[in-house]
Structure formats: structure tokens, C-alpha cells
Amino acid sequence: MGISDKTPEPDIICVMKDSTSSEHLPKGYHTKNSQAGVLPPGHNCLTRRNALKAVLASAGAAAFWSPAQAQKTKRRPDPRKGSPKRYAMKKSINQWAFPYPQRMNLKECLKLAKDAGFEGIELNYDLENDLSPKSGTKDYHDIQRLAGKIGIQISGLCSFLFWPYPLTTNDPDKRAKGIELAGKIAHAAHDLGVENVLLVPGAVDIPWRDDYEPVPNDLCDRRAKEAVRKLARQAERLKVSLNIENIFFNGYLMTPMEMNDFVDSFQSEHVKIHFDTGNISIFQHPEHWVPIMGKRIKNTHFKEFTKKGTDYSLETFRPLLDGTTNWPAVMDELDKVGYRGYVTFEYFHPYPHYPEALIYQTSDSLDRILGRIS
Length: 374
Known about the structure:
Blueprint: E1 12-15, E2 44-47, H1 48-63, H2 67-72, E3 90-94, H3 106-115, E4 120-125, H4 137-150, E5 153-159, H5 172-192, E6 196-199, H6 217-238, E7 241-245, H7 256-264, E8 271-276, H8 286-293, E9 297-302, E10 304-305, E11 317-318, H9 327-336, E12 342-345, H10 356-369
Parallel strand pairs: 3-4, 3-12, 4-5, 6-7, 7-8, 8-9, 9-12
Antiparallel strand pairs: 1-2, 10-11
């Protein structure tokens, strides 16, 4: 029932000051009365009707609280916690950070990445496991459905097979095998509904392998372009992107200008750049490469590097933020060129004990780099 003039006035609720008691009231006054305004001065009195009006008034004031007013009271970002600026890029992790396949299967890797807060995971193609020449279209469709059910994207495909089967080797059989495997990786990406395929185009030298004969620079360049030209035609049919990775340790495409010239020579929207921050950090700085390569960057590896050490093997790469990379500068440059794709942590040493810790630590570090925590 609504409040009307015919509704009896509710009782008056009075709170009397300690110094005043009912025995001091004049005759005819009451501590409880059905009419307002009959109590002596100095008393706090409120009818139930007025109490209701007060509640409604305060609710109305809250409704008019503007976002601008809320913004004034918002805590300022703390640069000690993370980037004060938030970046519109997607968080991903490469499968090499997981103890796969020895201690985790593919499903467990996908689920752990999702649970840790990653939007994507980069999978690796090899000769024996879930993504390999042993698998076919049906297998890849099953993996695609599994990732969809878990709620995580496959951010790209990667492979170590470009080292035992380089596209520029002096061994023609290995060269042909490398092109064949690169084609299979592209097909797997297509079947998985994945656009990004990392490609290592060749090597002048591979110092960590004793079965690779060094190739002259001009011959390496010619063979690499021949191989990528063949693969680019296939990539256009499959609607995937061949993303050329900067390696540095292979003695080829040592500057961003060389990388640009190589990629531009194909005049194809299906040949782009996969930029790795760590691979060039031994003598150079990733934030210097980004503005030169610009829109050619299609995908990235965020690999932490330390310039403090003297070991230039894979051991020189570190967990994120445990190195010398200037991440604020890298992020600013990526943002300036309009990069909005995946930033994928790549690391080759799953923790031997409690391997989930690396995954969660990396997720937290990326959140801070991306400005999601500040």
C-alpha cells in the first residue's frame, strides 16, 4: 500500500540527549507522540515516513554519481607494480615452457595455459608427437575442438626442425626434407585454423650443431629466397602467414633493414616477420628493431635475455623480467607501429620441480608488462 494523506502518521522515533529525561518535560509532552513538532527542542526525532524519504534520497544521490567523479577517486597506477599504460595485445606462451610430453599431455598444457590466464598458446611441430607427420587433418580438427572447448586460442605454430633440416644446407636431401616439413607445418596450421607459422629461412652457420657446413652469405640468401618463394605460393592457397624469424645466431638477416628487404622481396601478404626480442639482444636492442620493421611484424616472441652473463647458449635466456630487456621501451615501440597481436613467451627450460610455477609466474609478468596490473 502506498503512502497517502489518509495513512496514519507513523510513530515518532526520538533519541533524547543524555542531559534531558522525561521527568524534565513539561506536563502534556510525551516521548512518543503521533504528531510531529510536539517535542521540546534539543531532541533528535524522525518519523518512519521521513526515514523512508531519507533512504530514497540517498539512493537517488548515488544514481547521479558520475564516472568522472569515480575517476577522481580511482587509485593512480603504481609503476613499481606494472606498466602505467595498458596495451591492447594478447597474452600467449610457447609449449616449450611446459614439461611436454614427458610429464604433461597436450590437453593438460592447454588447460594449464587457460587456467593461468593466457589467451593463446603456441604449439610446436616435431617428428613424434601430437603435431607431427604422424598426424592428419582429423587429428588437427580434434585438437582445434579441444582448444575451443577449453577456451584457448592456438596463437601459432613453431618448430625446431629447421635446424636439422635447414632450407639453405649444402645437403640437397636435407634441403628438400626441410621444404617438405615446412609445407607440412603450414598444412597443420590450416587444419588447426591457425594463421601464424614461424619459419627460419636459412643459416650461414649453425654453431651449436657439428653436422652443418657453413654456407657463403650470398648462396645462403639465394637458397633461402628460392625456398620461401615456393612455400609462399602454398601459404597463399592455405591462407596462412609465413612469418620469418630473426635468429642472429645463424649469421643471416642480422639487421632489421636486411629483414625488411628479404620479406619485401616476395611482395606477398602471406610473408611477414616473426620478431623475437631475445635473439638479437646479445649485441643489439629489440626496441631499435621494432620501428624499422613496423607493420611487417605479424607475430612476436617475448624472450628474456641478460647482457650480464658470458654464456651465449640457450642458457642465456631467462624467465620474464629476470634479465636486461627494456620492456617499457619495447612495448611503447610495438604500440606505436600499431601491433595488436600475440606476445608469446618462449623459454626452453620447464621447471624440474613444480613446473606450473613457471606458467603462473610468466602470466603474472606479462600482465605487468601489458599494464593489466599497476
